[in-house]
Amino acid sequence: KITKGDCESYLKCFFIANSARAYSVVPAPRDSKEKEMMHRMLRVDHAGEYGANRIYAGQMAVLGRSRTGPLIQQMWDQEKKHLSKFNEILAENRVRPTALLPLWNLAGFALGASTALLGKEGAMACTVAVEESISEHYNSQIRALMESDPERYTELLQVIKEFRDDEMDHHDTGLEHDAESLPGYWLLKNAIQLGCKAAIYVSQRV
Questions:
Q1: Containing structural domain, residue 165
Q2: For residue range 158-196, what is the model confidence (pLDDT) as tens digits?
Q3: How far apart are CA 160 and CA 141, in angstroms?
Q4: Is 177 annotated as a binding residue?
Q5: Secondary structure of 26-37 in the HEC alphabet?
Q6: Residue 171 forms part of a structural domain
Q7: What are the binding positions for Fe cation 2 in this chain (predicted)?
Q8: Cα(first)–Cα(last) distance of the chain, in Å?
């Protein structure tokens, strides 16, 4: 027989569990300033992982059946996990994604496919440029959170550091697989990174 006390205990546990889940990564904002800061941070991180997924999708569309395909797929699988986590975080914290996702959908795929058409070296050059930009962006967020309140943001810092390390692994993989041997490598890299900086700036605000 279920008593009133049992029901109250169940509801209390349910509330605590769901509250813990909602703030397992991001703490409840203390004021409107912190809320705006966190929303901008999470919005741009989600946009970056979304764009990265579309880039790898474009690369796989061109090189998926080549000997480079399994390597690209391996990196893409990690990016899928990153995006899934940020989808979850945005939903839990009621953060609006950037309104520019349709643009990043097309632009990311086009960038991945067009550089892959240059061959393995082109795809790897794109990977180096993008992953370096994302890693630097994550590092700037890590510094900001550490300077603000590292204990308060412990869980979020763990997520960002883990994803930053994955991005750096992808960057190093690109270098190990002849990215720099592409003719015009530095020109392409700088152009892509300029685009990444613009995308980061806009995605925080729109």
A1: 36-204
A2: 999 999 999 999 999 999 999 999 999 999 999 999 999
A3: 8
A4: no
A5: CCCCCCHHHHHH
A6: yes
A7: 79, 131, 167, 170
A8: 54
Mean pLDDT within 69-73: 97
Residue 23 has pLDDT above 50, yes or no: no
Domain count within the chain: 1
Q: Is residue 52 part of a domain?
A: yes
Residue 129 near residue 193, CB atoms below 8 Å: yes
Residue 49 assigned as binding residue: yes
- Contact predicate 75/128, CB 8 Å: no
Q: How many Cα atoms sit within 13 Å of 165 on the Cβ side? A: 5
The annotation status of 170 as a binding-site residue, yes or no, is yes
Kindly tell me if the per-residue pLDDT of 1 is higher than 80. no
Asked if residue 15 is part of any domain, the answer here is no
The per-residue pLDDT for range 31-65, each reduced to its tens digit, is: 899 999 999 999 999 999 999 999 999 999 999 99
Q: Which DSSP category does 2 fall into?
A: -
Residue 17 included in any domain? no
167 is in an annotated binding site: yes
131 is in an annotated binding site: yes
Q: Are 51 and 200 spatial neighbours (Cβ–Cβ below 8 Å)? A: no
User: What span, in angstroms and rounded, lies between the C-alpha atoms of 119 and 55?
Assistant: 15
